[in-house]
Specification:
single chain; alpha/beta; 7-stranded mixed sheet; about 50% helix; about 15% strand
Length: about 325
């Protein structure tokens, strides 16, 4: 990096290759190391530079600015840059999932099958399963891989009123895990349906946190696995004990976090949070530029929005 052999995004990808927890993540990091992410950023910066030259050339000749920009198709070029940036941002978000993984927390009342579901997803006995409510006292963590995406599962203590001092600590840690979660699996007993206690747990979850309601123990009802509801109201009926319905859950997990299964590493960029922030900031400035152009306001404002968008993009490569 110091000798200009790698830019900042490429240098960071060296660490990403070392830290990659799945094969897909390693391949995605290698693409960034080879400069594909940087090339996409450079293409955006070059397009912005060309557009800025057109806009800023008119600042000294305000009486000719409208016709000049129309003849040069400046706003058409701006729209094309916005579309190009949207594609890069989509790829970067997918790559970020491969790099960071998702934290999925299992919550619910005691004895609804959280530990059984954890074991079934992990493919091994990582949590103790008994008929005694409150067996899980502390959060149990296990990382798994779904289609190359790392998922960090956290099995938590059942949420209920208790006088047990140790269980109270476990429940407090459950609340902490929920606050840091990317997705919550709310487990319910399919035999009883959603009780008042379950509704209380649902109401206590942070607003806007992605949620999948899992109705477990359908094997005791002789029911078949099923998926109900739409966006924001997803219900999956399954049996953690027999494994029936687990494939439905796995696919819905990936869909809920925004993973596109067809994008198996091809065209994805190993993006960090700072990259996503910079891309989003550039996107906002381009929207601001388009709004100024539509209103026909002073071109100085348009030029400044384009400059700020370019500045945000160049922080990615360290320029």
């Amino acid at each position: 990096f110091l000798n200009n052999k790698l830019d900042l995004a490429q240098a960071e990808s060296v660490a990403d290759i070392i830290d990659a927890s799945t094969g897909e993540a390693a391949r995605c990091a290698m693409r960034s190391l080879q400069g594909e992410f940087s090339a996409a950023i450079h293409a955006l910066v070059q397009a912005l530079t060309d557009l800025r030259m057109l806009v800023e050339a008119t600042l000294d000749f305000p009486e000719e600015e409208t016709n000049f920009l129309q003849h040069a198709n400046a706003y058409g070029k701006l729209a094309a840059i916005q579309m190009q940036l949207e594609r890069v941002l989509t790829s970067a978000r997918q790559g970020s999932l491969l790099r960071e993984g998702l934290h999925v927390v299992l919550v619910g009342q005691p004895n609804v099958g959280k530990s059984s579901l954890m074991n079934r997803l992990a493919g091994e006995e990582v949590a103790i399963v008994t008929e005694v409510p409150g067996t899980t006292r502390d959060a149990i963590r296990q990382s798994i891989e779904l289609e190359g995406v790392p998922l960090h599962l956290i099995d938590t203590a059942g949420l209920r009123e208790t006088a047990d001092a140790v269980e109270k600590i476990g429940i407090a840690r459950t609340r902490t895990a929920i606050d840091k979660a990317d997705l919550v699996l709310l487990l319910l007993d399919a035999r009883a349906g959603a009780s008042s206690e379950d509704r209380a747990i649902l109401a206590s979850l942070p607003a806007g946190l992605p949620l999948i309601s899992v109705f477990n123990k359908i094997d005791l009802l002789n029911e078949s696995p099923q998926l109900k509801g739409g966006e924001g109201q997803i219900e999956i009926h399954l049996s953690a004990k027999t494994g029936a319905g687990m494939e439905l859950l796995r696919q819905k997990l990936l869909e809920t976090i925004g993973w596109q299964p067809h994008a198996t590493g091809e065209g994805l960029f190993m993006a960090r949070q700072r990259h996503l922030r910079a891309l989003t900031e550039a996107q906002e400035h381009l929207r601001g530029a388009a709004a100024v152009g539509e209103k026909g306001e002073q071109l100085e404002l348009l030029a400044e929005e384009l400059r700020l968008a370019q500045l945000a993009l160049t922080t990615i490569t360290g320029e």
